[in-house]
Amino acid sequence: MAHSMGIVMVLSLLALAPLCFCGKTSGGGYLYPQFYDHSCPKAQEIVKYVVAKAVAEDPRMGASLLRLHFHDCFVKGCDASILLDSSKSIISEKRAIPNRNSARGFEVIDEIKHALEKECPQTVSCADIMALAARDSTVLTGGPNWKVPLGRRDSIGASVSGSNNDIPAPNNTFQTILTKFKRQGLDIVDLVALSGSHTIGNARCTSFRQRLYNQSGNGQPDYTLDQSYAAHLRTRCPKSGGDQNLFFLDYVSPVKFDNSYFKNLMAYKGLLSSDQILFTNNAISRELVKKYAYNQELFFEQFAKSMIKMGNISPLTGYKGEIRKNCRKVNAY
Ligand code: HEM
Ligand SMILES: *[C@@H]1O[C@H](CO)[C@@H](O)[C@H](O)[C@H]1NC(C)=O
Ligand SMILES: *[C@@H]1O[C@H](CO)[C@@H](O)[C@H](O)[C@H]1NC(C)=O
């Protein structure tokens, strides 16, 4: 009986294998959604609970947690390097240009980690917490659901130069941004789908001011920005001052994860230059923008796939890295 059960198990595992989105990792190991099923069965429930509480208190928090995972994965892989504070041996990525006065949600990650350390000490990595929090944030704001491959471990270092060089800037050209994605193993489809994250969250005046006043160094605004929308933006984003003033990335439904971001791009009302160029600078990405604007289902499906792909960027597995006790610092030995 036990023997035939074993055979059934092996057969069903083989049958399911092609459906697994498990990513091969640099540690030679694989990430898979059931990683904590035995070592910390309540892990996913605990993450979801804390994220839901945080988003209920601050609707923007979902966006901030989603972005944190992106800024982590693009620098040395999804290894929680972004969470480390500065110390004797570490210069924090929080100081880097894309993160300074901008990245947020660190206290929520701390709260999740605290709860998980109580439930199952030194078991769930900070990198996995971020991947789960990004998924939960997407679902809680109305977006698609997916199973998150797990088993990442945490870095023992950070890279400010990596943050400055590898995370795309809002005024980068289309080619520069695509090149930065390709370096991570992501393609133009991933670029357009993942940019759809900008259907939630905010950006500061300083992230798009150039478009309003002097886009190409000739004292002219960016004419691929709807000019009445631009005039409206100028009222709270003056030529100088107000750098930190906040604006919705998707003015139509700023806290709802939907496809209105893509509709905005078709109306020349993308907030960032990096958003609008997906529609204006490349024929392939333009078609993808249209496709997702017309069909939210297709956007949701691709978004989930691309998030899994992004989450698989060179994780630490096996004996590489560590499971931090406190996400802000490396363990002391
Ligand atoms: C394609 C290249 C990208 C560029 C140039 C870019 C740039 C930016 C900038 C400049 C901001 C506003 C920051 C501020 O002013 O404080 C922002 C916000 C945001 N980004 Fe991106 N981003 C890109 C891709 C992504 C990706 C791939 C994701 C997630 C998978 C993402 C998720 C977000 C979210 C959710 C926010 C709002 C955060 C908040 O409200 O706290 N972005 N992005
Ligand atoms: C992009 O923005 C940065 C920071 O504001 C600025 O230093 C740089 O000159 C801009 N690059 C281009 C090509 O406009
Ligand atoms: C626009 O930018 C260029 C180069 O960055 C600068 O030389 C010029 O003075 C600026 N023009 C205005 C009107 O601010």
From TrEMBL:
Heme b binds at residue 198. Disulfide bonds join 40-120, 73-78, 126-327, 205-237. Keywords: Calcium, Disulfide bond, Glycoprotein, Heme, Hydrogen peroxide, Iron, Metal-binding, Oxidoreductase, Peroxidase, Secreted, Signal. GO terms for cellular component: extracellular region. GO terms for biological process: hydrogen peroxide catabolic process; response to oxidative stress. The active site is at 71 (proton acceptor). Its cofactor is heme b; Ca(2+). Gene3D superfamilies: 1.10.520.10, Peroxidase, domain 2 (1.10.420.10). Its EC number is 1.11.1.7. One of its GO terms (molecular function) is metal ion binding. Substrate binds at residue 168. Residues 1-22 form the signal peptide. It is an enzyme of class 1 (oxidoreductase). Transmembrane segments: none annotated. Binds 1 heme b (iron(II)-protoporphyrin IX) group per subunit. Ca(2+) 2 binds at residues 199, 250, 258. Ca(2+) 1 binds at residues 72, 75, 77, 79, 81, 93. The record marks 67 as: Transition state stabilizer. Residues 30-331 form the Plant heme peroxidase family profile domain. It catalyses: 2 a phenolic donor + H2O2 = 2 a phenolic radical donor + 2 H2O. This is Peroxidase. It comes from Corchorus olitorius.
